[in-house]
Amino acid sequence: MFTVTLSVSSGKAGEAMPYIEPEAILEARNMDLLTYLRNYEPNELVHLSGNSYCTRTHDSLKISNGKWMWWSRGIGGYTALDYLIKVKGMGFVEAVETIIGRSAVLPPVVLKSHTKDEPKELLLPEKSKSNYQVLRYLCGRGIDKEIVMHCLSEGLIFESLPYHNAVFVGFDKENKPRYAAYRATSKQRFMGDCNGSDKHYSFRLSDARTEDVHLFECAIDLLSYATIVKRNGFDYRRMSLVSLAGVYAPQKDLEQSKVPVALTEYLSDNPQTKRIVLHFDNDKVGRLASKALLTVIPKQYQVVDEPPPKGKDFNDFLIQTQHQNKKERSDLRL
Length: 334
Description:
Layout: E1 4-7, E2 17-20, H1 22-29, H2 33-40, E3 45-49, E4 52-55, E5 61-64, E6 67-70, E7 75-77, H3 80-86, H4 92-105, H5 132-140, H6 145-153, E8 157-159, E9 166-171, E10 177-183, E11 191-193, E12 204-205, E13 212-216, H7 219-231, E14 241-243, H8 261-269, E15 275-278, H9 284-296, E16 302-305, H10 314-333
Parallel strand pairs: 13-14, 13-15, 15-16
Antiparallel strand pairs: 1-2, 3-4, 4-5, 5-6, 6-7, 8-9, 9-10, 10-11, 12-14
Helix pairs in contact: 1-4, 2-3, 3-4
């Protein structure tokens, strides 16, 4: 049994400070939120569907696939300890004591939530009735309005509540949403994947007839490239543009690196593909990722490295190009 003792070795003289054994802290950290609520606050748990739940007190707090996200506050985590601290406002010691104390009285029963082969349950945030802020944000990043409107109409992008984030959605062959990434439309650098996202089905604009596929680190770069293609007189809808849902991290030994799952899924669904074009960033991480994929992608494919001609990424290049064009038009009027 774990114990909490008092110590006067820290804090003010004569002031007793709580001490919790490291083993107790580890046990508390190992308890996931679903297990905690099932065993100790079952009335707080509301089943939505499959492996998805919310809480009775906060219906925007969704639980799925070992994670939880409180969408109305932009707060998330994995463990019951995170929940007690971030949602219930407990101090660290009180939260540990609560979990350990309840476990001592009633040892938790852990239920297997899903098998490895069972598809993840994607938790999408509530949709806003208007996409105004997302449209303003993306067009403000230089992305073509017609391209944004196309994505909005197809459900590839939507504006979420309550914070009006831009959400980029990826679908499987049955047109079921399987992946979603959110990004703040404000100046805050707030982004991440929605709970239950499967990176095999990352955000993409694809035409199954093409033999080329173009890879990007994120949705913004993909949309920026589509804008450049359109402004050069070509149809982006006849191309296959695939986001890898974040920075690709190769192994230290590049030859041991794995092909990103978003690419393997695409190649499996599109056997006509012959050429893979890499459009990663011009920073150290992007260059290393390109080098790794040039090494590990099967030799049956032609792999081409085409980073942005200038700037850090394709959105940076797009904005620089637009500023330059605007300056040239202004000079002509003088």
